[in-house]
Amino acid sequence: MTQPALERATHTGMNLSVATNFDDEMLRRISSYPVEEIYGKLPRDFVGGGRASYSTGDVGKSGLESHIRLAHSLGIRFNYLLNASCLGNREWSRHGYREIRRLLDYLVQVGVDSVTVSMPYLAEVIKKHYPRFLLKIGIFANIDSPIRARFWEDLGADSIVLESFSLNRSFALLGAIREKVSCKLQLIANFLCLPNCPMQVSHMNGISHGSNTEDTTPFIDYCIFKCSSMTLKDPSLLIKSRWIRPEDLSFYEARGFHSFKLLERNAPTDTLVKRVAAYAARTSPDNLMELIQPFGFKKEVRKEFGWYWSLLKERPGLVFSLYKLLKLRGMLFPLQNNPISLDSHKIPANFLDEISRRPCAAVNDCRDCGYCRSISDAAYRVDETYRDECLRWYKTVFRKLC
Asked: Would the pTM count as exceeding 0.90?
């Protein structure tokens, strides 16, 4: 088979991989920036991916196909996500194998340029039968060492998303990985996950089953409720999270990293464009939360409403409390005000230089030094009434859920 229509990228020059919400206007507005690709997927398919289907809208095949055509006309690749961490062993059945191949055949037909996976088996199927695709390895593969990176490169990976939630401030380890593999390496820049999140595997598996066509139990995102309640109680966790400021891209470029991934797929167009513009200009907005928070958007987000009815059937006693919490925090609903802010001007200009000299950069243990807490004390602001009300509803949801 032929190579992808768009040429394979080199390692030189900063480029962005941007989430798509399947709004064609968003695509047109980011086309003037250094965007190499957009990434996304159908809300549900046989494999599943890295976001629960209820949070990624209702785009169908015709919408996917027209969006890919528009991306190509603007010189932007489309990266389709098959990045589930678990298929429930369906892949070993005859039916499962046929469905995987049928889905990949469809992606060839509609002009997808690259496919992101997190399971070695899917990587081997793609390299054997679909050499036209660029093979990308997602963060759900937990690639956090030279050994793991070499494993995937030996399987034929063209590009690897490193385990940014843990690695983005572990500079010696980043350098060791960059030195040991020749494939493209990508870092996620604008996330708000807990540092070295202990819930990561559980979260990835839950999301994977909450985004395929085979699992029908409604997925409840306990992990995001847990981490978002923890950051309300301890805002220093917001600083300890391994995000990359736009101003600090050059710090990574000097270490051989030029590709950066921007989230979120359920964000409104204005938010996505603002994030792309900030990283292209290498300048943070006044409130850094506008770049890194995965919810709390001012406009309605696209969502799958069938989830509510499924949840009402399975856990009727939970629905009201969960609805109140989701509405209050702007998860799946618009949030017009800004009850939480993180003043980007109060984060020291030499933030990464200072982090790189501290023990936490070597041992990944943020507990004792107090540097991040001093920054959160200066930069973080929250409406205390709002915080207390949120924490009351978190407590209610956890009591009913557990």
From this structure: yes
